[in-house]
Design goal:
Chains A, B: This is LacI family transcriptional regulator. Chains A, B: GO terms for molecular function: DNA-binding transcription factor activity; transcription cis-regulatory region binding. Chains A, B: Keywords: DNA-binding, Transcription, Transcription regulation. Chains A, B: It holds the Pfam family LacI. 2 copies of one chain form a homodimer. By secondary structure, chain A is an alpha/beta fold. Chain A has 3 domains: 44 residues, 434 Repressor (Amino-terminal Domain) (Orthogonal Bundle), CATH 1.10.260.40; 136 residues, 3-Layer(aba) Sandwich (Rossmann fold); 131 residues, Rossmann fold. Chain A is 45% helix and 13% strand. In chain A, the strands form 3 sheets. Chain A has a 6-stranded parallel beta sheet, with helices on both faces. In chain A, helix 1 crosses helix 3, helix 2 crosses helix 3 and helix 5 runs parallel beside helix 13. The longest helix of chain A is centred in the last third of the chain and has 18 residues. The radius of gyration of chain A is 27 Å and the shape is elongated. The N and C termini of chain A lie far apart (91 Å). Chain B binds a DNA duplex through helix 2 and helix 4.
DNA sequence: GGAACGATGGGATACGGTTTCCGCACCGGC
DNA sequence: GCCGGTGCGGAAACCGTATCCCATCGTTCC
């Protein structure tokens, strides 16, 4: 019992090492560990002791190869730093953990190239599903690109889940978990309108982004419903960050200073807008009202606390994972029930959270 | 060439399928794909065409088993939602991607049980390293626990990296990437003291957490250096969230209302504190000054913008990954240079970021 | 012109488990 | 006392890929 095979004991212990040391067969060790086969108490004790002594863990790769293995779900984010995305990731991760699944996170940095590379990487990993987070630029190629992803993954026994972006057109094997983006914006704008605001600076976000488009559309609809003319000159597109909020308000104060409220596409944009107003000596909400979108923690940390639209990000994550898990079980015994391309589409509700950043207009228009 | 082996074509294409269809051997396909062996142009074309036709990707598990495979680094976070941690994760992930490494993220939810489970899971995955993020509760068992992790991982050819917590004692094979926590707090407190503040409400964070302890200690040292008596009655421990900041300030305003500044353990805590002060009709910084710690984006989104301590979170992530990568290469040709337990310890600097939340005291003490 | 050699491609094996198929005891029943 | 059933452990066949070793073919050098 002095020196075993190698001196360095390099690498990890294998199941064979355990078997040998316990004086049993490899099969027995496997059975003790997976526990899906009757094993005598005596054998179990012997094996477990050696397992503890050697601090043995099974090789996940080998296990996956042989058919078993932990299901894994991949989360692809543009930017892990975004609070909204982080919450979705938390939802996915939590639900995954609950089921004993593993979760991988990758960031794409808005780069289609990198997105492709990551999807392929995940395909190599044999993940149960790839969850794509965040709004998308719906340019011409996008639909084809996603459809290709969806089919590729589907063919490999995996599945594509789109979270926070509109569903794909046509018969594509992808699941979409979405929220009622437009209605949220509609409700938010209505809130401002019913408070008496007529001239509203709108900062929807990046022009091509689906979420920005939806939010803008919802706002517009609200104006129509209220019979208030919607001035395109009060719309300023730009990135979802506080700098844009700041710059846009500064510019608007110069060009069209008669607005009495700001409808920001995001809480972060609202934060920037608020800074700019303050910098110009305007008070919020006394002089100008502000509303946001997302209801991330920041919204309630600002002063005044931000009235915003609550988006159930974390729940979206949970729902996404549940959808994948259900589908996976459904494919079980009684034949594959998943027909060719069933594009499941789940929509979650949003609602306005009223805080302290809105007041009836005061300034003369 | 009509119907191949199975009808459903279930699962993914294997390298054998490709070889067969291209009329070459499995070895050749492997060589074409990995590209580390001379291959004729003709063969390469034939193989690549089939690869594209079949949309084939190699099985990462099989590849890992056979010796190749992408190095993977696991990131273990308490709560993916925390902005600071997210930045570290971003740093790790970015650096990993740059090297073609893969990164996994798991959340522990502050549960030692779950932490153990995750470390084992990662060990199964054969990750190159496990990066543990965030402050730790340095209770008695902690050191033993981490030492065990470190040795386990080391024995399996992996490595433990501690980020944002103090290094382990003794000869433990773990790398620590830390920042100068105490000095940051020292500088921050000095900033307040030199502005003239004498009665400072200190909200270090959770009592047992190493980061909170360090920050408190740094503050205390500053008081000593300035010859200002440090009143333990003005220290209030509690979680790193805005609710605690809010509640603590409210309570302090009732019990010891003579403080002129708040030294928060975190920007988020500072945000809560600010809310409470405002709710009580106190202006920031006119009536009470506030400083934070971390310099997350929130700090510059608050009004007034928060003076705080910048912690290079993202860089810490990058450094952590670099340390792992270097070590891995170092273990290469010329024998394992890593002696038994070289506890490498890297410390990054912090600095105060002066914004608008501090002013000389006004209120009478 | 023959032999040694470089450039390529193929067959076999290893990686570390899981799982199927078998065989060996040991048991009770007739 | 013999036979069939049952419970448990072992040997071996994969899982999909990388790589080692060998065979082959076309060159080039002597």
């Amino acid at each position: 019992m002095s020196q075993r095979k190698a001196i360095g004991d390099a690498g990890r212990a294998t199941i064979r090492d355990v078997a040998e040391r316990a004086g049993v067969s490899v099969a027995s060790v496997s059975r003790v560990l997976s526990g899906n086969y009757p094993v005598s108490e005596e054998l179990r004790r012997r094996v477990m002791k050696v397992v503890r002594d050697l601090d043995y863990v099974t090789n996940a790769h080998a296990r996956s190869l042989a058919g078993g293995g932990t299901p894994t779900v991949a989360i692809l984010i543009n930017n892990i730093t975004g609070a909204a995305f982080a919450h979705v990731a938390k939802g996915v991760e939590g639900a995954a953990t609950l089921r004993g699944w593993l979760s991988l996170v990758g960031t794409t940095g808005d780069d289609p190239e990198r997105e492709l590379a990551l999807v392929n990487l995940m395909r190599q990993q044999g993940v149960a599903a790839v969850v794509l987070l965040g709004g998308a630029y719906d340019f011409e190629e996008y639909q084809l690109r996603m459809a290709r992803f969806a089919r590729s993954l589907d063919a490999a026994g995996s599945h594509l889940v789109l979270v926070g972006r509109p569903p794909l057109e046509g018969d594509v094997p992808a699941t979409t978990v979405d929220y009622d983006n437009e209605s949220g914006a509609y409700a938010m704008a209505s809130h401002l309108l019913s408070a008496g605001h007529r001239r509203v600076l709108v900062l929807p976000g990046p022009a091509g982004l689906t979420t920005a488009q939806g939010r803008l559309k919802g706002a517009r609809r609200a104006f129509e419903a209220y019979g208030v003319p919607f001035d395109p000159g009060l719309v300023r597109h730009g990135p979802y960050d506080d700098e844009h909020g700041y710059a846009a308000v500064k510019a608007a104060l110069h060009d069209t200073p008669d607005f009495t409220a700001v409808l920001a596409g995001t809480d972060v944009v609202a934060a920037g807008a608020m800074q700019a107003l303050r910098a110009e000596g305007l008070r919020v909400p006394d002089d100008v009202s502000i509303v946001g979108y997302d209801d991330i923690p920041l919204a309630s940390q600002l002063t005044p606390q931000l009235t915003t639209v609550h988006v159930p990000y974390e729940e979206m994550g949970r729902v996404a994972l549940r959808a994948v898990a259900d589908r996976r079980e459904g494919t079980g015994p009684a034949g594959r029930r998943k027909g060719g391309g069933d594009g499941e589409h789940l929509v979650l509700g949003t609602h306005v959270v009223v805080r302290d950043s809105v007041r009836p207009p005061r300034r003369h228009t």
